[in-house]
Queue: 2 jobs
Job 1
Amino acid sequence: MLGLEAGIPYFPALISAVFVALFWLERSRPLRPETASKARRNLRNLAVAALSAATVSLVERPAVAPVARLAQERGWGLLGLADLPPWLATALAFILLDYTLYLWHILTHKTALLWRFHQVHHADIDMDASTALRFHVGELMFSVPWRAAQVLLIGVSPQALALWQQALLISILFHHANVELPPALERRLNWLIVTPRMHGIHHSMLRHERDSNWSSGLTLWDWLHGTLRRGEQPAIGIEDERDEGRLGFFRLLVLPLRPNRS
Ligand SMILES: [Zn+2]
């Protein structure tokens, strides 16, 4: 892949295996009934994902990786203030990146401009692991300065950044998956991490349900901020974009340009 750095661990085989395993579980243990063809939705979401992956390779990684290298060399950022063992610096980087991603997620909903782009992710009328990859190119472009600021202010090393981004990808594949886990197992997991039932509520058509469960990794942030919501699985999507036939690939690309209604 373009832009990968030597000496930094990448796990494409593990990430692909997680996607395939979730796809198989979605066929055998679906959490929510499907309202549209899974094959068509997944192909469309993967097409959006291909554009996003190209953006990450061509824009985000070349812009953010040098910031991480600089922060490491100069000892910049919060984690540069103390001489921490690498494992502890990586663990703290994971926690602080996860919290600042929680804040970014709220911004993508509460800022009219960012919501225009983030709604492409929420307009999926069913939710599964492929939805986790469906982010508009524009949203990813807007997130580049935020990501650079996270890395600089926290003081994230290139190794910790690459590991966190891959862990985040596995986390979002998991909690977008349309998989029914045994309730007792999911309850236990949900004490620590975001699970499919929890994130399903964030994809509700109802605004007050959508304005909850913003975390992408640890459940802690929603719990601390009082934005954690549990309950039945809602209808998925956004109110005024329910016509699956109209939500084709090109329509999704121009969706941010339509008049803002929600
Ligand atoms: Zn969201």
Note: The CA atoms of residues 52 and 137 lie 5 Å apart.
Job 2
Amino acid sequence: MAHPDYYKILGVPRSASPEDIKKAYKKLARKHHPDLNQGDAASESRFKDISVANEVLSDPEKRRNYDQHGDPAGPQSQPMPEGFSGFDIGDLFGSFMGGQGSPRRRGPERGEDLQRLVRISFQDAFKGTRLSFNVHRTETCLTCHGNGEGPGEKTTCRACNGKGQVERGSGFFRQKEPCEACGGAGKKGPACPTCQGRGRNPKQDTITVNIPQGIEEGQKLRLAAKGEAGRRGGGPGDLFLQIEVEKDPRFERRGANLYLTLPVSYTEAALGAKVDVPTPEGSSTIKVPPGTQSGAKLRLKEKGMPLPKSTHRGDLFAEVKVVTPTVQDERSKELLRELGELNDQHLRDQAWGQP
Ligand SMILES: [Zn+2]
Ligand SMILES: [Zn+2]
């Protein structure tokens, strides 16, 4: 009887620690519990699958059997299929290629890549930073050097009855694959006592990484060889850090350039002024020329974010927003009226011509 992929059901890697399994089970069981999903047949069957997967993977003995033989009950309970075995693609290719049906060996397998989200502040993205964090990964077992075998005499592999191959799939698409339990050799030693035959062990690793200045939201950093350990001599996978940068509410970032809105008073816009604007490293003075209109874009060169692999920086653009005064007192109103008479600019005539 073929057993389903219990790791997949719980959504955990094969290297998952007992705590990881417990956590994953609790989360899924809560979600699919029949009390919460009454009458939902799909949830009910999922809940059953989750429970069975947990029963196997949380029991060290059953898990070991399952990992090694594909059966939680151990190798004895797995009778070899007899009689008609369906259409065998492996044999077809074997004879087509002129092969002698010798078992293919499972070669080295590279470890899985790991992904991790890393959130940094706007300031850290500006200056660059050094981060340390913990990662749960696996490491090649030092006792058995990754082949999963302990000291002792090699015996016929019970998962494949010494054939070095197992059949996968069903009916028409039945296919032979190298046996995972013995790596296709047909013989194997007793399970390594350190890793229970898995060839790798869980490891809590502290990773330190330099985040370059100017890094942007959504960028990925690859840390070579910091993923899961490989199998049968394969190299480790990589660790990918996906970068999230917190926003600074004062700036809008586009690439290395920064944009901000600069409120300017009516008087400052008319007469010109020097005003302070924020930049990523404190404030800087910007000159508002006399007669500046709303929407004008003033540029502070090289006051934006650092450009990658460069000593240059992007620019900071300040978009002027002229704020109309809201006057209440008579004196101000009088002055403004007087000002209006002195500077009758015929604004709409200028815009549209005489109607
Ligand atoms: Zn080992
Ligand atoms: Zn085998």
Note: The chain has four domains: 1-79, 81-109+154-188, 110-139+195-246, 252-352.
